[in-house]
Design a protein that fits this description.
- The protein is mostly helical.
- The chain has a domain at 1-36.
- The protein has helices at residues 2-35, 47-68.
- It starts with a helix and ends with a helix.
Length: 69
């Protein structure tokens, strides 16, 4: 019966298409994971430490501005 052959061919093609879709789904998931950035850990720097760093940077900027003038 030729009708059964067509059905078998269609089922085979359907199985291949599902496998292709599954591979594409996995590829998309892998690419999405690459684009994500993990949340960085919290800084253990104290407020006083941040203040000292900020003051030192401001001093560097001030020094740079004086040199440019």
């Amino acid at each position: 019966m030729p009708n059964l052959d067509v059905i078998a061919i269609l089922r085979s093609q359907l199985k291949e298409a599902k496998a292709t879709v599954d591979r594409l789904h996995h590829a998309v998931q892998a690419l999405e994971r690459l684009g994500r950035r993990e949340r960085s850990r919290a800084s253990n720097l104290s407020a006083a430490g941040r203040r000292r760093i900020a003051e030192a940077q401001k001093a560097r900027w001030k020094k740079l501005k004086l040199v440019k003038k």
